[in-house]
Each structure stands twice: as structure tokens, then as C-alpha cells.
Design a protein that fits this description.
Elements lengths: L15 H5 L7 E3 L2 H10 L2 E7 L4 H11 L2 H10 E7 L4 H15 L6 E5 L5 E5 L13 H14 L1 H18 L13 H15 L16 H13 L4 H19 L13 E2 L7 E2 L2 E2 H18 L2 H17 L10 E2 L2 E2 L9 E2 L7 H7 L13 H8 L30 H8 L3 H19 L7 E2 L1 E3 H17 L3 H17 L1 E2 L4 E2 L2 E4 L5 E2 L9 H18 L2 H18 L32 H16 L2 H13 L1 H6 L5 H12 L2 E6 L5 H11 L6 E6 L6 H5 L14 E6 L2 E2 L6 H8 L2
Helix pairs in contact: 4-6, 8-24, 9-10, 9-11, 9-24, 11-12, 11-17, 13-14, 15-16, 17-18, 17-19, 18-19, 19-20, 19-21, 20-21, 21-22, 21-24, 25-27
């Protein structure tokens, strides 16, 4: 590679996204005091650009504008330019995205915001083309206009930015208003179900026309709704909606049939043509959701999809030290000789390529039929490509095919006169060959940043799948990742989590010079992961760490006046607002997850004030939960857990005993949204017995492994039969 012409301060950063911009002619600064001081000293406006390394339009804006020498000169002359990786600094991203959404009615990345030297926003947008177009003003024009405004109308600009900030402060406040009780769970659940039901796509599943996102939060809500209304028509519909959506997604092009795992989202109603990036947080949540679908339905199809996701993550997103990487990009070079990246190039196929790879005649099939014919029929491959031009504005997928399962095994088998079992083996062989061929293509960029929050979601995925599918190797992988978090993303001296670490040279794990402290979501998702990991592994050390982190979360983020938790801690003068997220989207919000975390923490510790805090979060979000619970399906789900009181399922027995293992397998095989599991192993000096004195009074009946189902620390009669236990848990 040639020696780069330009190098800016981002060369000293660890974030893959910031490093991608280290050779732009723009004099980029990372978010920090050096940039703020320069803006104040020179009385210059700040141009803030926020994105992430797998964001397609971020790449486009960089190619068109930030690599353009003339535009770079305009930026350097008039502005102090700051680049932020939103995955490293969700707090900075959220403050300015709140502004962009409030002032432009939309948002997204790349986010482009202009700030006064004291960091107050006054103009913002997302992607700008470099030059003026018919319906869009160009980036160059915007830069020159804003620079002129600053020279000629500085006082008005400053005044307006102050007014904007005051309005944002007022409109973004979430707090208890007068009433301090949580909203009625029954109504919240019913409204949320109705809202999801009316936006549901009966044909293809999902909850919108297009684009379609996986949104596991919606599916988890529906599973809980079903579990509480099993015998009603609404309950049956909730289950059908969730399972149908999961089936359609797994058959769709959003699912990578050759390389496993799920792409970010579908651009169409059929789950067919995706945006091809793969995010860790999707894999973690979907692994948990598909294993829940298996628990509920007993259908091996869902277990297979879970295994497929975990295979992808183990192979492609795993660091050898035990952590999980953040994402794989959508864009890559079509061949080793290409000079330009294309979206989806790594994943798509021409009919010709598939025919060449699968030329074998198939024994027992209709005369003259090849493996290629069968594969192309089953996966919807067309000679001219199967992507509608409407879904391919840049013509990057012309003549290409995104694989999508078009018919059932039975139908395809019948079409070619084969047995379904034989067809399954043929398709598997076809996928194996395509996978080998694909391995020769240049891979997409891998974002090797490791984030505490997303690692938490992935640990939950492995732990829950390990328990539900009875796969100890998944639980071991979760344990390995939790040990990684402890070693690299936790500071034992302060008891605090760190946000991120990075894969360095020689595959070592590196930390920034000044580590980024963990945010609320890091605590919420890691605590949830540790509870899931305890239930799967029954190692009490994870429980102890979860409770320590919960105390730390309370200390750093709790709002004692308005209730609920702030997303970031106090004391950072560069953050204009302390916000509380109010939308369960691609990821659940931290407050939503924390409601259930607190209820679990109370069950494992006996601390009643955690139950009270859970109720106070629900009270703070009460208005939103009653009007538009569809915006907070995970929190709506948590209202039911709060209302029904968690069942403590205690198994008294020897951890190595076959009878104990049988009891545990029974508990793990049942989807019961309002239970916590604990093993009373008789070690009265252990962590759980010290936390929960009532455990000492529970005994093994006739020396056998015995279960007790307790609520508020009062327990059922002893149960020694798994059948009886199953009945108790399904109530």
C-alpha cells in the first residue's frame, strides 16, 4: 500500500471506526478536551460527525466528502472537526441524536451536527451528498453557509442554541409525575398485545411492511403474553405471531444460509434482501429468542436456527481471549482484483456460479436433474438474479441472487421425486460447497472492538441456549466470555465496568489510554447475563458479581428525584443532558431490562428495596406504558413479572447427583417467564445460604433431590417428581 498523504489525530485511537478516518484530509479530533479547548481558544464552531464502522452511508459520506481535499480544506479552515464512534460513546450520540430528531423529524447515521464552542447544537442532519442535488442541499454548501452565519449572526446563533437546549431539557425529561405507583399490568399487557397485533404482517410475519427489523423485544413480549394467557384465543394468537415471524425470518435472505447468523434488517416485506452487516447484539438476542421458541414449541427447527447463530458467533465473532467482536460490515470487494467495495458482495451468487459448483446429476431424481437445479429451485435462484431493482438503487446486486427458502422440504422433494431426508442431505452438501467457494472471496471488514453491553447480550444468548437445548458446550462458552469481561472490562479496584476494549497487534487485548467507563446499558446487560449464566451453570460466583454490579449501578445512575436510571453518570461537563432512553428497539433499553434484573436480584438477596426500585422505574415510565407500550415491549413484559411476583424455584440436591440433574433439566426445558432458579446444595457457608437464611430450612425428602416453589420466601410442599414440578411451573 502507498504511504498515506494525510494523517490526523485519529491514528492514535483504538476504535476501528475512528481509525478508518485517520488518513482523511480532514483534521479530525476525537471527542475530548483538546478539541473543546481549540474551539474555545479560536472561537470556532465544532462540526461533529457520528457513525460506526459497519454503517453503509457513513462509508459513502467518507468517500464523497471526507476524502475530498477541497471539502477537507473548507472544514479545517472554518470548524474544529470531531469524529465519534457511537458504539464507544452512546452517551454523546444520544444527546445530539435527540436534537437531530427533534429538529428534523428524522435521524440516523452518519449524524452531522454543528455545535457552538460550548457544545450546544444548532444545526443537524444525517447524510449530505457532496454537492447540491435537485432535492438535497450539498455538504459543501451547508459548510459555507454555516461558516457565514457564524461570522455575521453569531449572537443570534448563540441565543438560539441556548433556547434549543432548554427546550430539549424540558421535552426529554422522564420522571414520576405525582402518582408513584406502577401502571396496572393487565391493561399495559393488553394494550401492547393489541398494538402489536394490529401492526402484524399476517403473511410474512414481523410488525411493519418494510424495512423489517428482527426486534426480539416484540417476540419476547409475545412469548410472555402467551405464557400468562395460554388458554385464551389472544394467547394462542400471540404464540402464532411469534413463531410464524421467527420461521419466516429463518427462511428469508436476512438469514445467511451459507455463512450462518442474521443480517441487520430486511429492506422488503418478505425478509428477502437485507442490509448485509451482521451485529453482535442481534445474534445474542436472537439466539435467546430462538431457544425460547424451541422451549415453547418443542420444534427442532428452532433449535437448529439457535445452533446456526451460535456457530457463526463462535467461528467469526470470537476473540481467542474469550470476548466477542462487535460486527461484520455489509460492504466488501467482490474479488481479490476489485478496487471498489460493494454491498453484499460476500454473500450473493449468480445462477452461473451455482451451476458450476453443483453440476452433479442426482440419483433417483427426475431425469437429467442436477444438484444445481434442486438447490436453485429451493433457494429461489433466478438466471437473471432475484433482487428487484426497486430494492437495489445502486445496481450493486444486478444479476445476483440472495438465497431465500421458497418452499418446504416436502414440496421441493415432491417436485423432484425425492424423499425429504435425501433432499435435506443434498441441500446440506450444496451449502457446504458454496461455503468453501465463498471462503475464497475477500471478507468484509470486521469490527474487533469488544463492548461490555453487547458481550452481555451474547453471554445471555449462549447461557439460555445451553440451558434450553441441554448443550453444556454453550454454557462453557458463556463462562469463558464472562471471565473475559471480568479480566478486561472490569476494574476490581473501583468495582466499575469499562465500556470497551480492542483487539491489538498480535491478537492481544488492548485498552485505550484513558478507558471509557461503563454506561447504564453495560451494567444492565452484563447483570442480566450473569443471572442467566448462574441459572445455566449454577456457579454462585456469577451471582455474587451480579449483585455487586447492581449496587454500583444504583450508585452511579439512579435518579432519586424522578426515579429510574440515567443512561450516563453525572459529572461529565461535556454532556449537556443526562437522558433516559424510552424506546425498546434493536436492543431493549437499559431501564426495561433493569426492572427484571432488580426483581431477580431481590429473589437472590432478600433485598426488598430492589423490588421497590423496580416499581419506581415502572412508575416513571407509566404514561408511555399506558399509551404506547409498543414503544417499550420489554418494559411492558416486565410489568407482568412485577405484578405476578417471581417464583423462586429451589432445587435441594447434590449438584453431581443424577436426580438433581434431572430436576434441573425439567426446569430448563420449560418456558416460564416469572421464575428464578436456585440450587440449594447444602453448603451453609456458601454465598446463597448467607444471603437467604430460609434456604437452611428446606430439606431433601427421603434423601432425594427435592424441588420447592417459593414466592416471597414462603414455599410449596416438597416436590420429588419432575412431572409434578412441570405442572407447578406451567401454572
Amino acid at each position: 500500500p502507498s504511504i498515506p498523504r494525510h494523517t490526523n489525530r485519529l491514528i492514535n485511537e483504538k476504535s476501528p471506526y475512528l481509525l478508518q478516518h485517520a488518513h482523511n484530509p480532514v483534521d479530525w479530533y476525537p471527542w475530548g478536551q483538546e478539541a473543546f479547548d481549540k474551539a474555545k481558544r479560536e472561537n470556532k464552531l465544532i462540526f461533529l460527525s457520528v457513525g460506526y464502522s459497519t454503517c453503509h452511508w457513513c462509508h459513502v459520506m467518507e468517500e464523497e466528502s471526507f476524502k475530498n481535499k477541497e471539502i477537507g480544506e473548507i472544514m479545517n479552515k472554518n470548524f474544529v472537526c470531531i469524529k465519534v464512534d457511537r458504539e464507544e460513546r452512546p452517551d454523546v450520540d444520544k444527546v445530539y441524536m435527540t436534537f437531530v430528531q427533534a429538529t428534523s423529524g428524522g435521524g440516523g447515521w452518519p449524524m452531522s451536527v454543528w455545535l457552538t464552542p460550548d457544545l450546544k447544537p444548532f444545526v443537524g442532519g444525517t447524510y449530505f451528498p457532496p454537492e447540491d442535488r435537485v432535492h438535497r442541499v450539498g455538504f459543501r454548501t451547508v459548510l459555507l453557509r454555516i461558516a457565514e452565519q457564524w461570522r455575521e449572526n453569531r449572537d443570534t446563533l448563540l441565543e438560539n442554541s441556548q433556547k434549543i437546549l432548554e427546550a430539549l431539557l424540558h421535552s426529554s425529561e422522564i420522571r414520576v409525575r405525582g402518582q408513584e405507583s406502577p401502571p396496572p399490568s393487565k391493561e399495559v399487557m393488553a394494550t401492547c398485545f393489541q398494538q402489536l397485533s394490529s401492526s402484524y404482517d399476517e403473511d410474512y410475519g414481523g410488525f411493519s411492511e418494510s424495512p423489517k427489523f428482527p426486534t426480539p423485544v416484540n417476540l419476547n413480549f409475545l412469548f410472555t403474553y402467551w405464557a400468562l394467557h395460554r388458554t385464551t384465543p389472544e394467547g394462542a394468537r400471540a404464540l402464532q405471531m411469534a413463531l410464524h415471524t421467527l420461521k419466516k425470518m429463518a427462511h428469508g435472505g436476512i438469514h445467511d444460509h451459507i455463512g450462518q447468523g442474521f443480517h441487520r434488517y430486511s429492506t422488503d416485506q418478505l425478509w428477502h434482501v437485507p442490509h448485509f452487516e451482521k451485529m453482535l447484539y442481534d445474534q445474542g438476542q436472537l439466539a435467546a429468542t430462538y431457544s425460547r421458541a424451541f422451549q415453547v414449541s418443542g420444534d427442532e427447527f428452532f433449535a437448529d436456527v439457535t445452533k446456526d447463530i451460535l456457530l457463526y458467533v463462535s467461528r467469526d465473532l470470537s476473540d481467542e481471549a474469550g470476548g466477542f467482536y462487535s460486527a461484520e460490515d455489509a460492504d466488501s470487494y467482490p474479488t481479490t482484483a476489485s478496487t471498489e467495495k460493494r454491498e453484499g458482495a460476500f454473500c450473493v451468487w449468480t445462477a452461473e456460479e451455482i451451476r458450476a459448483l453443483l453440476p452433479d446429476p442426482v440419483e433417483g431424481a427426475t431425469e437429467g436433474i442436477t444438484l444445481g437445479d434442486i438447490f436453485m429451485h429451493h433457494y429461489g435462484v433466478k438466471e437473471t438474479g432475484n433482487v428487484s431493482p426497486m430494492k437495489d438503487p445502486h445496481q450493486e446486486l444486478k444479476g445476483k441472487n440472495v438465497l431465500i427458502v421458497r418452499c418446504s422440504l416436502e414440496l421441493t422433494a415432491a417436485q423432484f421425486g425425492l424423499e425429504p431426508g435425501q433432499l435435506g442431505a443434498l441441500l446440506q452438501e450444496g451449502r457446504r460447497r458454496l461455503s468453501t467457494a465463498r471462503a475464497q472471496r475477500p471478507r468484509p471488514h470486521l469490527d474487533t472492538k469488544m463492548l461490555a453491553a453487547w458481550n452481555g447480550l451474547m453471554i445471555s444468548g449462549f447461557a439460555q441456549a445451553g440451558a434450553a437445548l441441554a448443550k453444556p458446550e454453550y454454557i462453557s462458552r458463556a463462562v469463558q466470555a464472562a471471565a473475559f469481561l471480568r479480566r478486561h472490562l472490569f476494574d476490581p479496584a473501583s468495582g466499575r465496568l469499562l465500556r470497551s476494549c480492542y483487539r491489538g497487534k498480535d491478537n492481544t487485548v488492548e485498552q485505550s489510554t484513558v478507558p471509557i467507563q461503563g454506561f447504564l446499558e453495560d451494567y444492565a446487560f452484563v447483570i442480566q447475563a450473569l443471572f442467566d449464566l448462574y441459572e445455566a451453570s449454577l456457579e454462585q460466583g456469577w451471582l455474587e458479581w451480579a449483585l455487586q454490579l447492581q449496587h454500583m449501578q444504583d450508585k452511579l445512575f439512579w435518579d432519586p428525584k424522578g426515579f429510574a436510571y440515567f443512561s450516563s453518570e453525572a459529572g461529565d461537563p461535556s454532556l449537556l443532558l443526562r437522558l433516559k432512553d424510552d424506546q425498546d428497539g434493536a436492543e431493549p433499553t437499559a431501564n426495561s431490562v433493569t426492572v427484571t434484573n432488580l426483581l431477580r436480584a431481590a429473589c437472590y438477596s432478600g433485598h426488598a428495596e430492589w423490588v421497590e426500585k423496580a416499581g419506581q422505574i415502572l412508575a416513571a415510565f407509566s404514561e408511555r406504558l399506558q399509551k404506547i407500550p409498543i414503544a417499550l415491549p420489554e418494559m411492558a413484559r416486565a410489568t407482568a413479572v412485577f405484578h405476578h411476583t417471581l417464583k423462586q424455584v429451589v432445587i435441594c440436591g447434590d449438584p453431581q447427583g443424577e436426580d438433581t440433574k434431572e430436576m434441573l433439566r425439567c426446569v430448563h426445558s420449560i418456558f416460564s417467564p416469572n421464575k428464578v432458579l436456585m440450587l440449594a446444595d447444602g453448603d451453609s457457608a456458601g454465598f446463597l445460604y448467607r444471603q437467604l437464611p430460609f434456604l437452611a430450612s428446606l430439606e431433601r425428602k427421603d434423601g432425594k433431590a427435592t424441588a420447592y416453589v417459593c414466592s416471597n420466601f414462603s414455599c410449596s410442599l416438597p416436590i420429588t417428581s419432575t412431572q409434578k414440578l412441570r405442572g407447578m411451573l406451567c401454572l
